[in-house]
Each structure stands twice: as C-alpha cells, then as structure tokens.
C-alpha cells in the first residue's frame, strides 16, 4: 500500500480518509469538496470513469495536493467489487465517502419533457443518481470498520421545479435511499446524510435546458442571497458532516441554498 499523506496535520478533518466519488470539473461540487477536505487535513481519493477519467486525472493536479485517482463506475458490479482493493493501495481504511454522482439524459428527461421521458432513460437516471448511493455505501462498507460518514448531494426534491423533471424524481429517490441506508448502517456507526444545494453553474447544470429559470428564482427569493458560481458554502457543509461535529445526525438533509427552501413566496 502506498500511503497518501494529507496537506496538513490539523483542521476539521485532520486524519480523516475520504473518498470523493464523482469529481468531473473544477466547477463541480465534488472538486470543491475535495479541495476543502484537503485544506482541513484530510487524505483524499477521488474517482471517475471512462473518457472522463483522464479529465479528472488532469484536474486533480490543481488541488492543493494531487490525490490518487481511481476508476469507479458505480453502475459496474466489477468496479464496485474491486473498490476495497483499489482503496487499499492508498489508504488503510475510510472515514468518509462523498457521493457526488448524478445523471439524466438532458435530451429526453429535462427541460419540460417530463410526460415524454422514456422508461429506459428514467431507469438509468434512477440507477446512477439514487441506487448508486446504496451501491457505493455497500462497496465502501468493508473499509469503514470504525464507522464514519457518507454524504450525498441533492437538489430539494420536495417540490416540482421548472425544467428539472425526471431528475427531480431521481433526487426524490436519492433522498429516500439515504434514509434507508442510514437505517441499515447506523448500527455500524456509519452516518448517512445529504446536502441540498441551491443551483450552481456546474457543467452538469449547464446541460439542463431552462436552468436559468432556477437561477433567477434564487436571485430574488433567497433571504441570504445566493451566488450561483460559489460551491464553497456547499463544500463546507459537506465537510462539516464528514467531520466529528455531528456524531448523532443521520438520515438528514441539510439545505445550503441561502434559505430559499424556507420561503413560501
């Protein structure tokens, strides 16, 4: 095993070993989480797969310390089965896992196409965006022998949003999945929570037809204001949930959206 050292020995996440699954671009929430975790003393491993893996390997060099990059497709049983061995090449266990993974075909499932969305694409969106949380948790479970924290990312699924369509359904499934995983892994000291961020201008968001409608809503209704280009508040919330600050919190959804979710109009 090649031991990976953290950027600093102090900080909120000092000594923590964290896998951030789904780092795709410097504008992504996953990247912001990886950066914050390193700044707070964590040893970080990041993942991606397929053609995007090379992109992730390049952007990994922009982090404070270049982390190991492993190939992980959460829909591939072989990748999930071999994940503990891949992790063991770099760390002797895990304290935290970040699920920053979602996909819905923008051509068929988003932008006002809800009534026409084909089941094949819907099934893919639910598998990648929701079922994968359970799959990832199960794959990482052997490495979390001392318990730990799993944190996923959602977009408030309690309402129907303009343009979001079947991804809203997939996020609702993710939110329910997180509660069941929290139930089943709690006895092992593993906490499972989600962070519901407001709209951010990530590569994935830009692929959503009508995304600007959501941005405009936040600009006028979030009482604390909202910066669509700033993923740091979301990353900090994820970092707090990965830390030891919330030892008795699981099955929760923490909103980081400038307070938008609490406003009626």
Characterise the protein shown here.
With 265 residues, the protein is α/β, with parallel strands linked by helices. The chain has a single domain, classed as Rossmann fold (3-Layer(aba) Sandwich). The protein contains 8 helices and 7 strands; from the N terminus they run E-H-E-H-E-H-E-H-E-H-E-H-H-H-E. Strands 3-2-1-4-5-6-7 form a 7-stranded parallel sheet, sandwiched between helices. Strand 2, helix 2 (52-60) and strand 3 (69-71) form a beta-alpha-beta unit. It is globular, with a radius of gyration of 17 Å. 46% of the residues are buried. The model is unreliable at 2-8 (pLDDT under 50).
Q: Report the sheet with the most strands, covering strand number, pairing sense and barrel closure.
A: 7 strands, parallel
What is the SS-derived class? alpha/beta
Q: Please state how the strands of the largest beta sheet are arranged side by side.
A: 3-2-1-4-5-6-7
CATH architecture: 3-Layer(aba) Sandwich
- In percent terms, what proportion of residues is strand? 5-15%
Report low-confidence residues grouped into runs of 5 or more. Answer: 2-8
The CATH topology label is: Rossmann fold
Please bin the fraction of helical residues: 25-40%
Annotation, overall tally of beta strands: 7
